[in-house]
Automatic annotation (TrEMBL):
Name by which UniProt lists this protein: CHAT domain-containing protein
Transmembrane segment boundaries: 828-844
Database matches in Pfam families: CHAT
Keyword Lyase among UniProt keywords: no
Keywords: Membrane, Transmembrane, Transmembrane helix
Ranges where the CHAT domain occurs: 563-818
Gene3D superfamilies cross-referenced by the UniProt entry: Tetratricopeptide repeat domain
């Protein structure tokens, strides 16, 4: 009997394991047979129970099977984000446990394909590309042509979504390199090619391919699209009606039907039939929200992360005559956009969302500006400013909020883990960018993409716990009251620009008032701004035609409505192309002077500081209290672009500030990264580049280059960052996010106060400006005042020639940050006290002598 008990003891784990695996499969099959909400709840409860108990690979595979079927049901019922979470966990479980070793389970078909498609639907393009490329590589290794082609098809759909139709066509060519046995795939590839050829206005090729399609529905849809591009509205309507008559025969999803009726609404709008357009939009909404009350606007609680909602609400707003209702529709679009952004962990995707939100913001501001002009009620200006602020530097604001929260709760393991994952995400992104630049092998790129996807999944898993714990935590939201209180304290005026497609809006905010101006944006205005920026392309342009500069500098001052600024201090929040305008170099009145120091530059009359957002101006991140400098001076001796005057800069700074100075061969990238988080002042005197189409902004060290994304991995809180290098404020411009520059990288890393350059200037002038800056900064402890002092001192210096006083040399550097007041110099007080003490001692001595006598 004892032997039997012992035998049962030995085999019981295997019996339990087999039973657990079978129970997981049984739970899945029960759900598949009866897909209801009640069964979904039961399945989810069982899933949580199984997770803590599984051990073997077979059990893991059974759970992958369950999660894939759960993900499919959630996708079919419109819960895209929860569906993604289920598929993500299934994918991670499958690959982390190497389950392909024990089974030929088709992870591509069951998990990766739907996951990639879902990422496209919620505009998470970074993860979509990563996932699709992952399963294309898997399919190649498995020699599965069907799955490879599915990957190329889905990549093409993604590129079409991004408007990259030439790239889509190139991708589809990869799918046709081998014979396509699957007729459905062949038809889909042709349909996608037709769509891109139509978008590229190649109607002849599109029509030839259209004749080869089997589906009459698709043929009529394509004829409609061609007619629409040719502005033949009657033919477009006719072809769309023919397609609509056939749609019931097509096996399409509710989402496809919603998009179809949205297209019909667009057609009605073009035909100036807004009543029919509203009916079509309502039909589209019904497919996405079957239980929606048609007499009311949808409740935000019923909405989910689906980009088709945004299309519907935006079109509703565009045809709504009641401004309040139009704004309500646009607010719903903003809400869905926020849902989509919350489900995305990469900066790139969030920035893309911001770009589309900018167009929506402009529409809102346009409505409110007109209402203000009609009513005179400044509440409309305040509302307009809220829209301008809410879609400006959103990614930077988000990370700043996270840093403030971590500053307040430094020992919270959730927040610490979040920051580690964010840093790892940016590190992998940087490695991926560099691998693509170096044309690394596909396997390496795929490995990095998979790792990046895994970090993204972990961040998503962490977010609900953080949101729940810090539900009432104050986020970095705009407050007009806080802004005006700070302006009162700083004795300043704030000028915030919103650079739209149709107009530039200028908000003027003082301690007790707010106003809004509008500048109509046409080619003339656009060229005037661009021409002024191009005056600083090289040193000779301004000096060779000073009269031209004077005219343009004053005209732009007038165009931007900068007159009547009463306060001495001014905070400028630029936008769009205005990010590249040196406002201090504008002229406040006409002048014929040929002496720069006598010209009425804005900098001679106002103390200028810039910022990316009013929120950043009002925020309160605690900087490091130490004033020690980390100085980086590679110098680049014996190279074409040596910086010999950089040594003078280093010598001058060392005279005034203690610190660690990395000079010449010591100025390595790793030495900088090892030290940067420990210093209050960071000074880089080196070469930098704004990047190009494929290469991100970067900054040079003696041995290596540091790219923009690498800065995102840092966690800094310095008092000041000085980028004494060329083009540190220039980079690819994104609407709502600004320039993807080195300066922005430091802002993301945590720097609140920065001094950086907008163009390339020579080594000597930079050194002179920096010496003047530090001379003032040493005494005042105010970077804001030191920046103003350095420019005025440079203009007034008797040792600098008139030609070198061109604004090309001194206005390149702009200061973004707080208007910190200078610390008053107490030397005079000490002199007076010392004199009084001396007089008192003399008096005592004389008295004592008299007494002795």
């Amino acid at each position: 009997m004892k032997k039997l008990h012992f035998l049962l003891f030995l085999i019981s784990p295997f019996l339990f394991s087999q039973n657990l695996e079978e129970r997981i499969y049984a739970a899945s099959e029960t759900f598949i047979a009866n897909k209801t909400e009640a069964e979904l709840i039961k399945l989810t409860e069982k899933e949580q129970h199984y997770k803590s108990r599984i051990k073997s690979k077979d059990e893991q595979l059974a759970l992958v099977f369950l999660q894939c079927h759960k993900g499919f049901y959630l996708k079919e019922t419109g819960r895209l984000t929860t569906s993604i979470l289920s598929y993500e966990e299934a994918s991670k479980r499958f690959f982390n446990n190497e389950l392909s070793v024990i089974s030929n389970f088709d992870i591509i078909e069951s998990c990766l394909k739907p996951l990639g498609n879902l990422y496209i639907q919620i505009n998470d393009y970074t993860n979509a590309i990563s996932t699709i490329n992952h399963y294309i590589l898997l399919a190649k290794n498995q020699q599965n042509t069907k799955h490879q082609n599915s990957g190329y098809i889905n990549l093409a759909i993604l590129y079409q979504t991004l408007g990259k139709h030439n790239t889509a066509l190139q991708t589809l060519e990869l799918a046709t390199l081998k014979p396509i046995k699957n007729n459905k795939q062949w038809q889909l590839i042709h349909q996608l090619k037709i769509k891109s050829f139509i978008a590229l206005n190649n109607f002849k090729t599109a029509q030839a391919l259209n004749n080869q399609l089997q589906s009459n529905f698709e043929k009529h849809k394509n004829n409609y699209a061609i007619a629409l591009k040719l502005n033949n509205i009657p033919l477009a309507i006719s072809e769309f009606k023919k397609a609509k008559a056939l749609i019931k025969k097509e096996q399409v999803s509710a989402r496809y039907l919603a998009k179809f009726y949205f297209e019909e609404a667009q057609l009605h709008v073009l035909n100036q039939n807004n009543t029919s357009a509203k009916l079509s939009l309502q039909h589209a909404l019904d497919f996405l929200l079957p239980n929606h009350n048609k007499l009311k606007l949808p409740n935000t609680k019923s909405l989910y992360a689906e980009n088709t909602f945004i299309d519907i609400f935006d079109l509703f707003a565009s045809i709504e005559t009641n401004i309040s209702k139009a704004l309500n529709y646009l607010d719903l679009s903003f809400y869905v956009s926020r849902l989509l952004q919350e489900k995305s962990t990469s900066q790139e995707n969030k920035i893309q969302h911001q770009a589309s939100n900018r167009l929506r913001s402009e529409t809102c501001i346009h409505f409110l500006y007109n209402r203000f002009k009609n009513s005179g009620d400044k509440k409309n200006i305040i509302a307009a400013l809220q829209y301008a602020e809410s879609n400006k530097s959103g990614v930077l604001k988000k990370i700043a909020t996270k840093k403030l929260r971590l500053q307040e709760f430094p020992n919270d393991s959730l927040l610490i883990t979040e920051f580690k994952l964010l840093a790892e995400q940016e590190r992998l992104t940087s490695e991926l960018i560099q691998a693509e630049i170096k044309n690394s092998d596909t396997q390496k790129i795929n490995t990095l993409s998979t790792a990046l996807n895994s970090v993204s999944v972990e961040l998503k898993r962490l977010q609900p716990s953080i949101n729940e714990k810090y539900e009432n935590y104050k986020t970095n939201k705009f407050s007009l009251e806080e802004l005006q209180n700070l302006l009162h304290k700083d004795e300043a005026t704030c000028l915030e620009f919103f650079f739209g497609n149709r107009a530039i809006y200028l908000f003027k905010i003082t301690k007790n008032d707010i106003n809004l101006d509008k500048i109509e944006l046409d080619e003339t205005v656009l060229n005037q701004i661009k021409n002024f920026i191009h005056l600083f392309d090289n040193a000779s342009i301004i000096n060779n035609n000073l009269a031209n500069f004077s005219i343009n500098a004053f005209r732009l001052f007038q165009l931007l409505k900068l007159e009547r600024i009463e306060s001495k201090n001014v905070v400028i929040i630029p936008d769009g192309l205005l990010n590249f305008v040196p406002f201090e170099a504008l002229l406040t009145k006409k002048t014929e002077s040929t002496l720069y120091q006598n010209m009425p530059f804005l900098v001679t009359q106002h103390n200028i500081a810039y910022n990316s957002s009013a929120v950043f101006y009002t925020q309160n991140i605690k900087p490091k209290t130490n004033k020690n400098v980390l100085g980086v001076f590679p110098v680049f001796e014996n190279e074409n672009q040596a910086l010999p005057y950089s040594l003078n800069e280093a010598t001058h700074i060392k005279e005034h500030f203690k610190g660690d100075y990395l000079i010449k061969q010591a100025a390595t990238k790793q030495a900088f990264l090892n030290r940067v988080e420990h210093f209050g002042i960071i000074h880089l005197s080196t070469h930098a580049s704004s990047g190009n189409f494929s290469l991100p902004a970067n900054i040079s060290f003696i041995d290596d280059t540091l790219f923009l994304n690498e800065l995102y991995t840092l966690n800094l809180n310095p008092d000041l960052v000085i980028l004494s290098a060329c083009e540190t404020g220039i980079g690819k411009l994104y609407k709502g996010a600004g320039a993807m520059s080195i300066a922005r990288g430091f802002q993301y890393a945590g720097a609140e106060n920065l001094l950086f350059s907008l163009w390339q200037i020579n080594d000597l002038s930079t050194s002179q400006m920096m010496q003047l800056f530090y001379k003032s900064y040493k005494n005042s402890k105010s970077a804001f005042q030191a920046n103003v002092f350095s420019k005025r001192s440079y203009l007034n210096s008797e040792t600098i020639s008139n030609a070198k006083k061109s604004p090309y040399y001194w206005s390149a550097f702009v200061y973004y940050g707080q208007l910190d007041n200078p610390i008053k110099n107490n030397n005079l007080i000490y002199v007076i006290i010392g004199s009084l003490i001396s007089l008192f001692i003399v008096f005592l001595r004389r008295k004592l002598k008299r007494h002795a006598a």
